[in-house]
Amino acid sequence: MNFVSNLGLAIVAGVGGVLAVRGAITVGAIATFINYTRQFGRPLNDIANLYNSIQSAMAGAERVFEIIDEPMEVDAPDARPLAQIQGEVVFDDVSFSYVPGAPVLKNVSLDARPGQVIALIGPTGAGKTTIVNLLTRFYEIDSGRITIDGQDIRKIKKEDLRRQLGIVLQDTFLFTGTVRDNIKYGRLEATNDEVTAAAKLANADVFIRRLPGAYDTVLSERGGNLSQGQRQLLAIARAILADPRILILDEATSSVDTRTEKHIQEAMLRLMHGRTSFVIAHRLSTIREADQILVINRGEIIERGNHVELVAQNGFYARLSANQFQATADDAPPVSLVK
Question: Which residues contact 48 (CB under 8 A, 6 or more apart)?
Fold first, then answer.
């Protein structure tokens, strides 16, 4: 549209100049026509900009309607409520694929006793996060069986199942609202005293009280006015408040500095105490004391055992461990997530 407007101005100025030389028009008349041309081109530019806005809005509306049209999650007709659990998790010969014919997990079996820490390690794309996604029933398995305290999770109401699961991810999502409301999202009926107690256990109370409004400080979308470590501490406080029996920690300390990592790991130790925990990590120093370490590669568990047993096998884990600990030999040893 700018090209059309500029072309119109050039034509008016050119024709006007020829007529002015011949004495058929005055310079003032030429200026008037140029002004008319500009006024005529402005609505055309507005229409073009409006068209671009409409196209952007339509693209956004398509994504919104995709979510609205997504079918509601429905429990099985014989789904039962889930009462208080101990936290025993069993994967029995589980296979899964996002796309038919391309399996992501192949015949995975594991047994996590109540209160145990299960570490999942392996290359990117090996299937570690898929395992916890199946435990939370974000996807349904193709074959096999997943049980919690002996109950098939497909026969448990999803809402009750997810109430027993606490998740702390690498990228924590915080909402626009107060610090208190973001922590309370873990259990909406919690009292202010319970929120404060959870923040203290998560090592978050100190930095929260330094904020301009303490617990009433309003956070921006995704917690943009907090550091990565502070967002992680709030996520831990949220999980403590929810008081789940099963924890999922997915690379929760991978994007913070060493000092903040120590505070986060101390908070996680409190959070994990007495709970069945699944820890996904690339840094082996954080999971050396785990009860079970499962090495996953290409959708299969290729090694399992504790740190000492796996090092003795001199396999994939032993090579990975040697490389990592040699690279960090000159640094201060990080605090383990497991004691």
Answer: 1
